[in-house]
Amino acid sequence: VSMFLNTLTPKFYVALTGTSSLISGLILIFEWWYFRKYGTSFIEQVSVSHLRPLLGGVDNNSSNNSNSSNGDSDSNRQSVSECKVWRNPLNLFRGAEYNRYTWVTGREPLTYYDMNLSAQDHQTFFTCDSDHLRPADAIMQKAWRERNPQARISAAHEALEINEIRSRVEVPLIASSTIWEIKLLPKCATAYILLAEEEATTIAEAEKLFKQALKAGDGCYRRSQQLQHHGSQYEAQHRRDTNVLVYIKRRLAMCARRLGRTREAVKMMRDLMKEFPLLSMFNIHENLLEALLELQAYADVQAVLAKYDDISLPKSATICYTAALLKARAVSDKFSPEAASRRGLSTAEMNAVEAIHRAVEFNPHVPKYLLEMKSLILPPEHILKRGDSEAIAYAFFHLAHWKRVEGALNLLHCTWEGTFRMIPYPLEKGHLFYPYPICTETADRELLPSFHEVSVYPKKELPFFILFTAGLCSFTAMLALLTHQFPELMGVFAKAFLSTLFAPLNFIMEKVESILPSSLWHQLTRI
Question: Could you tell me which PANTHER family the record lists for this protein (predicted)?
């Protein structure tokens, strides 16, 4: 060993440390990229998935898995339900709002995944099995599957042109003569919906098209309502016509809200909820809450919350944060953190703080947008409850309502971070809700555009292998630099280090030589 060390030159040490630094640096760059994209360490993932079974790690868990299969299935069902993607009840209009943003900025605000989910929703709500019997509906059934926007718009125009064809029906008046009654085929309501959503470039144009869709959709709904009990085919058609009518009326109410006719919008939403109380999938009450907050009708907002903020009903950021806003409104104008620290919180202030903590626990991403610590983007057409996408959708429409209440944002700023001291870490249990789902980051990255930095909760700690490779890269790079600058001195240090490293081995070899006979040791060395 000593002879080998004496033959090594400083160039060898420079090459050794430089190569080690380069390799560890490449591993560090790859690990960091993999962690930023997938949220986990590649080396750790490979170790868990491939090396652990080889070392027998699976056997230790097999008994636990068999004993707790029911609990695992329940938790899996819970995680699947919490990671379900929902239609955004306040989604914008593609032609009048999303496309205008693209024209101005050159950026696409919607992802392919988001638009694909919308296409699936349209096929579910606006089509049925009997569409092939009507030429216009058959065309629209294909249009909802079309990816190209211009092809969809052309198909909608084609469906409307087909309905311009007139059918003549013979009506005998006298035995010797007949007259021809001209009868128009019913207009295609879904074609007007597509044009209003994607072709109209202003909200006023979209409203005009939706009014035409309402006229056609109302007629189809009344006809199918009379025939719904004649068979399953008529029942499915009536269900489709009901979805079309509710969608049109809701979008008309949203048009009125956009155009400043807020009271008219509130009336339309209330009438729609009374007419179709069982259709909760559209979440019309969230549109109603936003419009009532714009009117500053806080008593009506409280009445709506009393109905929908129930323990048996699914929650949303709109419900939780609106409840917090109403309670904060009662105390925020006189709230002072210095005075509260001296005298303590009053009962009303405590209720407001608890409501804020409840809202933040449900969706911890919202405060950064309300406090303008993160920039807003256009909300997507679908949201993930408790995720960053829902936070963007809520803050986009409700930030103005929080600003209108004096001191509400100040109270939120002083209290929202206290929520995280109440939640068990590492989120194995929730405080007021189920534990925060771990799948939100992946789903939000699919829903939100690439130019937006997705908010992640909880903040993930850097994996051990990233820290290890960073330290190894820095250490070897420093050794390479020192060896290059001071070759003789570093050569002495390297030889001393290696001699010390091999000292136990030399000691063992000396002991073995002293114990074994010299003839036996000579034969072993020859072998």
Answer: SUPPRESSION OF TUMORIGENICITY 7, SUPPRESSOR OF TUMORIGENICITY 7 PROTEIN
